[in-house]
From TrEMBL:
CDD domains attached to this UniProt entry: HisKA (cd00082)
Annotated Gene3D superfamilies: 1.10.287.130, Histidine kinase-like ATPase, C-terminal domain
Protein name stated in the entry: histidine kinase
GO molecular function term, any single one: protein histidine kinase activity
Domain of life the protein comes from: Bacteria
Organism name: Cupriavidus pampae
Keywords, comma-separated and alphabetical: ATP-binding, Kinase, Membrane, Nucleotide-binding, Phosphoprotein, Transferase, Transmembrane, Transmembrane helix, Two-component regulatory system
Any Pfam family: HisKA
PROSITE patterns the record matches: HIS_KIN
Record flagged with keyword GTP-binding: no
E.C. number(s) listed in UniProt: 2.7.13.3
Amino acid sequence: MEATREQAGAESVATRLAKSARRAVFETASRTTLLDEESVVRLRRIQMVGALGVIGHPLYFVIWSYVFPQAYENLWLRLICTALFVPLLFASALSHKRWLPTYALFAITVGMPFAFIFLYLENHGSLVWAESVIIAVVVLYHFSSAFATVALLSGAVGAFVMFVLAGHSLSGIPWQPLLLQLPIIAFVIAVLIVIKLDRQLLLEEKRRGMAVALATVAHELRTPLASLTMTAAGLKNRLPTVLDAQSEQCEALLQAVARLQTDVAYVSNSIELLVANSKDPKSARQEAFDLNGSIRDSIARFPFEPAYRDVVTIEECGHALVMGNAQLFELVITNLTKNALEAIKRAGKGQIRIRCETREDGVFILFRDTATGVSPLVLAKMFQPFFSYPADRGTGIGLAFCRDVLRSWGASIACRSVEFEFTEFELQFPRLSS
């Protein structure tokens, strides 16, 4: 008996250790820095500019020194700029470093507006360097307007100071070509800003169109949903009179009717919430709700095919109260589940694991599937409205909807993925103040 108890105790300890090990692996992977859509796009731009600098500065030193010699070139300036751009190639790997944004601003400022304007001044405002300065401006304004303006102005001031310190007088500045260049640069900046605004307006127009379409669909669905509600109520009333009220068959049918009534009511409420959210996410009623309960309700309602009923594992973390709308949050989980199941079907493998955990900086939901994963290019566009992957899969509004809903509560959603391995979403909620 004692040997049996010891063996059972040992097995129990081993089981607990195995579970702890699995949880530790999951937590370690989950706590890796996750990036939102804007951060991913910004890092990609920094990397591309880094590549341009590392290749361009040495290449154009050779071109302007030996192929098409210019009046002035500076090897040391080119080497310094190239060295400054090298770390930008590894922006994704350095994304967790707090100094990266400041360093990127400094490196791009020195390597582009400062270097280009200084060489423009040294070459007496030649056409080659006038065009080069314009190209630098175009590249800069692919970043945010604030970033580009700060870099351009500080780079220009630095270039003029360096030009004077290099032994030139103010009269040595090529004033006439410089003054001719300024309106052109201002026009280029204005055009780039207008293009950005135009893209935003087009996006807003598409969103408004989707809102109108959603409202129209909702209006058309209300009548058949009301009819289903009345039909379910009629079945519930008449079944006991048609069948033996105490029979198992009648009880099963009444349970099915009750489920139908619940589902119809849920769909009706979801439609109303979606219409309200398409107009203004903050218009949906907000209150404290339990994340664990909402996750379980969403998974319980999901229409799984029989072969995929057991792919979801939910790890408990006790009550986790946050502020928001429980039903909208359930739609968020439903959307993530639907996307993960589609990936699992494409891959022919995979599991879904959902974990909730409370940390010092908030309450987190970790939603991971081990199906196909996505490439960095897809990851960078994942939350963009109307982007879908694969391209023919849907409307591309699901993840954008999830992001907008969560943002309206002060929460956030981010994603990381390794192609062919996994995709993990991290939802972060502010902790409720005591």
